[in-house]
Design a protein that fits this description.
By secondary structure, the chain is α+β, with helices and mostly antiparallel strands. The protein has 3 helices and 6 strands, in the order αβββαββαβ. It is globular, with a radius of gyration of 14 Å.
Length: about 140
């Protein structure tokens, strides 16, 4: 049974889901920082997903990253799976701007997290609605 890792629960908000992945928003308003988590129990590595699930994860990641790049006029999209702190497989999809708090460095540990306001979270939810991402349903 799929259960979201406690650290991801603590550090993010659930926005919705795709066919394979739950979509989260990192609780750091320094960057539009999204996280896709495959809804599969006991998975920590990409290769532990079967071939169809690997393809689905890539499709969901690519679709999200492409839409966010256009919507935010991103200078760069950072897409990564690391899992050194959180073992559960998850894909970071981070919108980067040349004027963001960490540019050009990686976002991890660069700046203290800034909390979102309720209004900012609602604006992100609205942006996702407007993107009409294929297969996405809001939580």
């Amino acid at each position: 049974m799929f259960v979201l890792d406690s650290r991801l629960q603590q550090d993010s908000l659930v926005l919705g889901e795709f066919a394979l992945c739950q979509l989260l928003l990192s609780k750091d308003a320094n960057y539009p920082w999204f996280i896709l988590v495959p809804k599969r129990a006991g998975i920590s590595e990409l290769f532990e997903l079967d071939a169809a699930e690997q393809q689905q994860l890539w499709q969901e990641t690519t679709s999200l990253a492409e839409a966010l790049k256009a919507s935010y006029s991103a200078d760069k999209m950072n897409v990564a799976t690391l899992g050194n702190v959180v073992g559960q497989l998850h894909m970071h999809v981070i919108v980067r701007q040349r004027d963001d708090a960490a540019w050009p460095a990686p976002v991890w540990g660069k700046c203290p997290a800034v909390a979102y306001t309720d209004e900012q979270v609602e604006a992100i939810r609205q942006r996702l609605r407007e993107l009409k991402l294929d297969g996405y349903t809001e939580a």
